Amino acid sequence: xxxxxxxxxxxxxxxxxxxxxxxxxxxxxxxxxxxxxxxxxxxxxxxxxxxxxxxxxxxxxxxxxxxxxxxxxxxxxxxx
Length: 80
Known about the structure:
The chain is an all-alpha fold. The chain has helices at 13-37, 48-79. Helix 1 (13-37) packs antiparallel against helix 2 (48-79). It starts with 12 loop residues before the first helix and ends with a helix.
C-alpha cells in the first residue's frame, strides 16, 4: 500500500505539535553542531569538556528529534 492508497484522515493537534517540536529539535541540533564546528579559533570561552558536551548534545537532539518524528508519523499512519 502506498501513501496515495492510504485513506486521508484528520491528524490531531497534538500530533502536529509533536511533529513541529521534533523538527525544532533537529533544527536546534543542527545549529548547535554548526556552531561547534565553525566556532572562531580564538574563542576560549568554552573549555574542552563544554565543547565535547555541546557535540554530544547535538547528536542527542538530532537523533531524539528524528525518533520523535518517526514515532509521530508511525502513529498517524496506524490510526488511519
